[in-house]
Amino acid sequence: MSIEHHQHPPVHPPRRTLMGPGPSDVSASVLAALGAPTVGHLDPYFLKVMDEVQDMLREIFQTRNELTLAVSGTGSSGMEACVVNLLEAGDKIVVCTNGVFGGRMADVAGRIGAEVVQIERPFGEVFSVEEIKEVLEKEKPKVLGIVHAETSTGAAQPLKEISEAVHEADALLLVDCVTSLGGMPVKVDEWNIDAAYSGTQKCLSCPPGLAPVTFSSRAVAAMDARKTKVSSWYLDMSMVRSYWGDSRAYHHTAPINMNYGLHQALRLVLEEGLENRFSRHYSNHCALKAGLKAIGVEFAVAEDHQLPMLNAVKIPDGIDDATIRGQLLKWFGIEIGGGLGPMKGKTWRIGLMGESSCNTNVLQFLSALELCLLQAGYELPPGASVAAANDFYRTTITG
């Protein structure tokens, strides 16, 4: 049976403003890099690109870790790579679960036969040093896993003191930095993080497809001391690191063009400068917060622990979640995210990540949200959110 080609038109996606929990908007130069000529995965040019990607990732992770690379797969492959390389069947891991992604880390560990102990906080809350110390003393795990920026809730987890407690207990610290990397400080060496993973599609503003990871010398020593093979052949760092390292031993065909895209995205991060980038994310978060407050929309996370790049806010009473998100997309081409787990239908997740974190998006979103809320019968002073955000920008630009 033949299918005429005209039944399947070429891919021609709509142009959206991506203000959800990821992916974020991608710059034209990153998209152009993705379209550059493909070379072989062992071509001298590509090997040079791999080296430069590693160098730039070290700068952004703020680490000197030799084993720093981009896993061939989305952010979840980075999570799986860290878990399966650090743990063998029977090893104990404590996972701190205060959202969807802590739960995923525990699930992956359980699937490889690790002994998983979960400590939990309600969605949107963070863990204290005291409760971490208590569980470490009681359980004596090999690894403690925790999420730095919980994408499902918008909560930022302080890490420095927790890291000290983990190392005092002679355990390894594994951190999910998927949403935080490139948008707020991730100080791998200063905070003594043993393994961290991220994704390309959040604050790095590259399409999804690669997972930056970094491992400390302590983590590498633990991997080298394994008694059994890593359960995943594809994610086995003992082989993958040979491909990314000096020996260049073929392991798998890396996604060449995705690495071009990441290379350019990392260049843009470092051209802007980490401190400037963190400041931009925080400033746009504050403007958005000022605008939402002016129309009575509250944050779902305590002030001290709000993520600057992922703003989780409470949906006002009587307002239907899906209706508003559908109108934002249909009328304005703006994508925001709904809540997950117990927050489903109760929160919106508004992303201001990487390229998407700009005053244009903040002001456009607030204006669009006002119309959608007014249409739904929600009472608000028209124009108040935009005025409040502009007032913030005016004082920060001129102050």
UniProtKB/TrEMBL annotation:
Substrate binds at R349. Transmembrane segments: none annotated. GO terms for biological process: glycine biosynthetic process, by transamination of glyoxylate. It is an enzyme of class 2 (transferase). Its EC number is 2.-.-.-. The modification N6-(pyridoxal phosphate)lysine is found at K202. The keyword Transferase applies. It comes from the Bacteria. Gene3D superfamilies: Aspartate Aminotransferase, domain 1, Type I PLP-dependent aspartate aminotransferase-like (Major domain). Keywords: Aminotransferase, Pyridoxal phosphate, Transferase. Residues 38-324 form the Aminotransferase class V domain. Its cofactor is pyridoxal 5'-phosphate. Residues 1-22 are annotated as: Disordered. One of its GO terms (molecular function) is L-serine-pyruvate transaminase activity. The keyword Transferase applies. Belongs to the class-V pyridoxal-phosphate-dependent aminotransferase family. This is Purine catabolism protein PucG. It comes from Gimesia chilikensis.
